[in-house]
Amino acid sequence: MDAPFIYDRFVTGKNFIARKTECNSLRNLLEHRENICIYEPPKSGKMSLIQQTLFNMRMAGRQYLAPGVSLFNVRNTARFLTKLGSAVIRQAASTPAEYEDAVRNMLAGTHFTFDQERFSCCDEILTLTDEPDENDIRKILALPEAVAEKADTDVFVILEEFQDLLSLGETESERIFRIMQEMFTGRDRTGEHFVSFILTGSKVNAMKFIFEERKFFHRTVEHIPLLRIDNREITDHIMRGFLTGGKVIDQELLSGAVELFKGNIWYISHFAAVCDSLSKGFMNEGTMMDALAMVLSVHEVRFKAMTDDLTVHQLSLLKAILDGETRFSSVEVVEKYALNSSANVRRVKDALKKKEIITFNEKDEPYFLDPLFEYWLEKYYFER
C-alpha cells in the first residue's frame, strides 16, 4: 500500500496538489523556448513542480530529454563540467558504442576524455586531462544543443542548487555566468528543436544575488515564484490521506497546524505521517501535539546549531522581526533591541541573509525562510 503522505522525495500525480498556475507557467515557458529560474527555500516543492510539469507534457505527447544535475557538492569548474557533460551524454547514449557514435565528435578539441570503464558503474563518465579553459566550458554548455539535434528532440537541462557555483570564487563563477548568458542570448530560436535550462536554488538570497542584484541572465531567464498553497487545499489533501487508512482528524486543529507550518507542504506531510503512525482512529489535540514534538525533535539539533552560530546582535534583530518590527534603522528600534547603530543594522541584516535565515520581499519586509525554525525560535529559544 502506498504511503498516504510522502516527504522523502518529490511527488507527482495524485500526491501533487495545487500549483496549477506555476505548472502552466513553466510549461508555457518551456514550449516558448525560454530558460527558467526557480528559487525557494529547501523543501518548497521546486522539483515536484518541475517533474509534474514534465509529466503533464509527456502525457500530452511532448517528447524531450531532461538531464538533471545537482551542484550542491561542486567546488571547482572541472567537477561542474564533468557532471553536466556526463548527465547530458547519458541521455543521448545508453552504451559506450552509442557514445562513440553520438557524442565523441561533439567534444573534439577539448580536454575531455571518455572513460569507458566508468560507463557501467559511475554517473560521471568524462574526465579532464588538464585544467578546463573557456573552450571546454563552451563545449559542455553547447553539448545539450548538439544532443537535441542528434536525438531529434528537445532537451530540458535541470541544474539544481545553481547558486553553489558561487563557491567557485567570484572570478570563476562570473566567467561561467558570462559564457552561459552569451550562449543564451545568441541561441538560434528558429530550429526544429530547442534547449531550455531550468536553474533552481534553495539558497534564496544567493540566487537573488545572482539574478536580482548582479542581474546575470537579464532578459534571458524567466523567474517563476512559488505561490503559497491555499490552506483549504492542503487540509483537504491531508484529510483524504487519513481517510484512505480509515482515520479522521479534526479539521479545525489541522487548519491550525497548516497555519503553523505556513503552508509548507513538506513539513505538513512529515507532520501528518507522524500523526498517522501515532493513531489508530480519531486524531485529537494530544496526538497532534505529540506529533509536533516529534517533528521538532528531528530538527532541534539543526536549529540549535543555527542559533549557536548567531551573534547577540543577530539574535536581537530576529527578536525584532518576531515582534513585527520593520523599521530596523529607526532610533526607537535600535535602542529597544540594543542594535548599536543603523550601520550595524545593515551589517546584521546582510549576515542573516547570507546565513539564509531571513530574506526580504519587494516591500523590504523581512520574513523567515524556515517556518518551523521561526516557531521553534519564538517558543523554545526566546521562550515566549
How would you explain this protein's 3D organization?
- This protein has 384 residues and is of the alpha/beta class.
- Helices cover 51% and strands 11% of the residues.
- It has 15 helices and 12 strands.
- Strands 1, 2, 3, 6, 7 and 8 form a 6-stranded parallel beta sheet that branches. Strands 4-5 form a two-stranded antiparallel sheet. A two-stranded parallel sheet has the order 9-10.
- Helix 6 links the parallel strand 6 and strand 7.
- The longest helix has 24 residues.
- The chain is globular.
How does the SSE layout of this entry go?
Layout: H1 20-31, E1 35-39, H2 46-59, E2 64-65, E3 68-70, H3 77-92, H4 96-102, E4 112-114, E5 126-128, H5 134-151, E6 154-160, H6 170-186, E7 195-201, H7 204-213, E8 221-223, H8 231-243, E9 248-249, H9 251-260, H10 265-278, E10 282-283, H11 285-308, H12 312-322, H13 331-336, H14 342-354, E11 358-360, E12 366-368, H15 371-381
Secondary-structure element order, as H and E? HEHEEHHEEHEHEHEHEHHEHHHHEEH
The backbone outline, from C-alpha atoms, is globular
Q: Would you count the extended β strands for me? A: 12
End-to-end Cα distance: 42 Å
Question: Which spans have pLDDT < 50 for at least 5 consecutive residues?
Answer: none
The radius of gyration computed from the alpha-carbon positions, rounded to a whole number of angstroms, is 24 Å
Roughly what is the average pLDDT, rounded to an integer? 93
In which range does the helix fraction lie?
Answer: 40-55%
- Outline the biggest β-sheet: 6 strands, parallel
Summed up, the helix count is: 15
Which structural category fits the helices and strands? alpha/beta
Which band does the percent of strand residues land in? 5-15%
